[in-house]
Each structure stands twice: as C-alpha cells, then as structure tokens.
Amino acid sequence: MQFYHGDMCMQMCAVRNLGSKIFRNLLQICLFPVRLKRQSVCERKLQMNLLITLIVVLNSQPADARDVKPKEETYVPDYTIYHNVSQLQKDLADIAQRNPNYFKLDHTYRSRLDQSQLLLRITNFTGSRVSHNLHVHIPKVKVLLSYAEHAREFLPVESMLYFLHNITGGLVAPTGSYSDLFSRFILSNFDLFIVAMMNPDGRHQVETTKNYCWRGTSEGVDLNRNFDWNFGGPGSSGDVNDEEYRGKKVFSEPESHILRELTSKYKFDAFVSFHAGIRQIYVPFADSKSKKIKRKPHNLDGMLDLATILSTATVNHYRYGLAYNLNDYTADGTVFDYMAGKRRIPFSFAIELWGIGDYKGAKCFDLFNPRSKNLQVAVEEIHPLYESLFRYLRKWKERQVIKALDPELDAPSLTLGFILLATVIIITIFVAIQNKLPQCLRVFPRRRVISLKSLSSTFSMVQLR
Fold it and tell me: Sorting pLDDT into bands at 50, 70 and 90, what band is 333?
C-alpha cells in the first residue's frame, strides 16, 4: 500500500509564506511520496511526527491571515482626496488652532521613529465639567477612540475627520439648526480622547513604499496583538514575516503605550478601536482562552444592547456579537479585549466600518478602503453610527448616575415622582389663590350657603299663608 501525503502538505503550506529553515525542511519532506512499507518503524514515526508538527504550526495561525508582500493593486488612494500623515497632522492642528476652547492636540505620545500619534482631546474646556438635566448633574461621558492601528486601513481615519468637521461646522451653524445642536450635544456632554494615528510609522511605510498590504509598525508588529490579554496565544504569530506578528513581548512597541497610559490616568466609560475590511461590530472577547472557556465580559448585556442599535444605525447593516463567535479564528493580545478584561471599561468594541470581507481576486487596498471617488459617500453613510454611539452613551451615563443616587429608584419612577410632585404643588397654589380672584375668573364661583333652619322657617311661612 502506498501513502501519498504531498498534496495535503502543499495545500497547507500554500496558506502561509513559510520563510524559515525549519518550515522549508518540513515542506521538502512532505513533497515526496513515501512507501511506508519500505521504511523502518523509526523512520515512519519520524515522518509522521514531522507532518503533525507542520499541521499544528500552520493551524495555530488564523485561517485568513496573509503575508504583507506588495501586490498589484486594483486601485490606490488619490491623496488629493485621502489624507496622508502630513495632511492629517496639518488638518488636526488647524482645527485645534481655530477652536482652542474645544480642541487640544497633544504630541506627547510618539512612535518608535519619533512621529506623533496625534492625540486629540475634545470637550468644552471653558464650560462645566458636568451636564445637566431636570433632576441631576451628569458627569461628562469619557470616551477613548483609536484609529489606524493597522497601516493599510485608511477609511477609519477619514470617517473620524468627517465626524470632526461635523462638530466644527456646528460651531458656526445657525442657532437651533441640526448641526448646531449636534455640536452642542457632543461638546457639552462628552470628554473625548481620540488617538488619530496609532501607527504613524506603519502608515508612513505604506505611503513611501506603496505596499498597501503592510499592516504593522516599522518593526512589522501588529499592534492589535501586542496588548496584555492572553498575549502570545495561538491567535497571533511569533513569525516576523507574518502580518499578525505579536512582537517580542507584551507592550514591546512604543505605539501601544499611549492606550495603556491613558487608561491608567483616566476612568473611561467607553473605548472603540476602529478598523475596516468588513462591516462587523466585535464584542469582547476574541482570544483563544476565552473561546475555549466561553468567557464573557462583565457588561455583556449593555454591550450587546448598544451593538444592536449600532448595527442598524446606517443604511448598511452590521453583524455583531462576541468576537470569538463572529470569526472562525481567534485573536490574542487585542486592544479591545485588554480594555474590557484588564481595564474593565464598561463598553469596549472593535468596529470594522467598511468592506465586504475577503473575496476572490481581492488585493489589499481595495479590501479595506473604497475608491477615492466613493470616499465621501462612504464616510457620510458611516456618520450615523457615531451619532447613535454618543446618544446611547449619554443616556446610559444618566441612568448610571440616577442608580448611584438611589439604587432602588430607576429613571422612569423618578420622573413620574417629579411629575406628581409638580402636579400637587400647582393644584395647591391654584386653590390658595382661588378666593382672591374676581367672581368671573373663578373656576368654582362662590355660592350662597343656606342652612336647614332658615329653609324650615321659609316653609312654615308658606303654610301659614
């Protein structure tokens, strides 16, 4: 009996760029058919062990991972429409300079090659630290947003710029207009921290080399595998040539420090990591261990509730759910898992804003970004997702404050109580002033009161007559 396994090995090896010496040796062994009957028992065991080793190593990588070598692209960005790093920095600096009471641009956090990660803070710096409603003072909702962790994903940054221009546009819009109300709502109720360019070195490499498949930092590290949550698990790679290379150790990359330090300094209510490639909303967790033990985040119900609303916020519907259920692969060391699991931020998501997923004939830039001529339409369609996100978080914050004041009193009963109290006060005042009004203005005019004694006397006189 002959046992040929070369074809199987070729299929497995085709899904990876196997560059190391050990993989080349394993592949060479697999390529040749062997007659097991002519081998010794020791040789057969060695052959099969090597084959099993190859299978295990290949299967430890996500099924849809790809190398980062350049391809002949279907289309590339037009930088008169898309923003390169220098244009982005100039635009953000201009926004902050023109609106110093609402925008502050911070260059403190920098990449390995000393480029700014462009931290933008947005709120009404001159106003109160709390917003108000009829009943209580509501602290501003603290939200942290992260963009451009992956160098080849241009679209999320463009959606951020469109969001920012909607805020600045509202500052000069007519009072009472939708734009005016939207800007007031954001600036009065939120304290936003936006990391506009998590991976400036990687983006610079994409722009200069025109390799639109490049995903990592200048060292090739995938920042979304470099965080302290099941770091080093099989849902990442130790191969520097793999696009999901996790780095030498947790937080090995200077670019990942900004999110660790911000979440150490501030207590955030929500975190979102924006991506592109498919329209999906990922709820933690994505890591291998969580999938195995069916681990769930502490605020799962709240996250799913918000994800449900976001999924239908735009004309394009989004799939949503636990990340390890949505994908057929796991991801270890992700930032949104870290935010939910380690930092315990109530709402933590990874949202892929655009795309249809991998498809036959796909290159790289077209997988993650629309054509330049379609960019404006794409960001306009995405914008309602931002609006829904912030409106939900504002209502959630109000409910949290009310519950903290009286855990047994929920928002609807509190509102009803105030309505009843106001009704009683109005009725009391109305009754008190009733007798002081002119007769014609009284709701209940004064009537003569006739006693029974006088009425009886009247009847007696009538009978005598």
Answer: very high
